[in-house]
Amino acid sequence: MARWNVLHFLCLLYLANNCVNYGSCMHDDHYVEYGLGTQKFCHVLGKTFTTDIKSGAAIVMSKHIFEQWMVRTNLHCKFTFKTAKGDGLFGVIQKMSFRRNKTQCLDYVQFKRKDHHQTEKFCGSIDRSKVKYYVVPEPEDSVYSSESPSLARTYAEYDPINHKSAAELETEIFISKEKLKEGEFLALSIAYTSFTNCSHVDREKYTSIGYQTCMLNEFFCDGIYNCAPGVCFDEDTCPNNTNAIISTGTGTKVTVGAVTTLILCFIIFMMCLWICKRSQKLCWSMDCADPNSRPWQVHASYMEGPATPVVPSAPMLEVAVPSSVADKDLPPSYDSLFPEQSNPVRS
């Protein structure tokens, strides 16, 4: 019985953990979220793995990997996303906080298409939930100072549609081992979204983004910037863009973490109480307590005194004669001693 209770408790704990973490694993039902700290994206041997998103979308986030940046070696990640055959692929940086070293990128992100065309190394700070598609200002000594704004400040790349093959985008991420200075922090979030030819899809489920290409309706006005700037726009006509899932600081992470921990601890505590009660390890009533552990009840019984026995009713004049008196011989009667005096008529 105890073994089954333990197994039941472990199952409930697993389900509770999944419920708590579900909101961080999926954004609606159209984005698959990946953590940058996994071997699939940052392999220790430098291997490159390919993830097929088919006709969907994915988001790669740094999550907790940058919270305490105290490492001995540089972090070098390289991974590839691909789509279904005949689809194109967008790769758009949603949020980034990477360091510069004067005119060079100390940390950077770089995209490479299937035809081996590479972008510049992107670094600096950007948060699309705040700046939307406006031009992001760069310092005067920026590595992008000689580049055109349309090329240098898109922080995105795309692989166009090829009817004979799938689209692919390789992403290279480099983080220096140098310690963070006061006020510095690292953050990264990249969205990868597929798009296709409008002639191959249901136009009720897809929206045109120009050039005879379409994207799923769910990717518009959802707080995620799917289109590469200068190619198309999916968030510019939204009345209020309040659905962004990109965190803007560590305060939100601390709050969410604290609330999640409290909820999980409360669930575990309640399940422990339930299991202990079901296994009869706890006693919340005096019915199951040891009689020796209740001295106050014994004391009360003495205070009340012995119970009064029930006495049957009897005649009030009946006198009980001791057995010693009944066994003695009684004196003879007067008639037996003086018969003549007792009968004068007969004399």
TrEMBL record:
The chain crosses the membrane at residues 254-276. The keyword Signal applies. Residues 1-25 form the signal peptide. It comes from the Eukaryota. Keywords: Membrane, Signal, Transmembrane, Transmembrane helix. This is CUB domain-containing protein. It comes from Habropoda laboriosa.
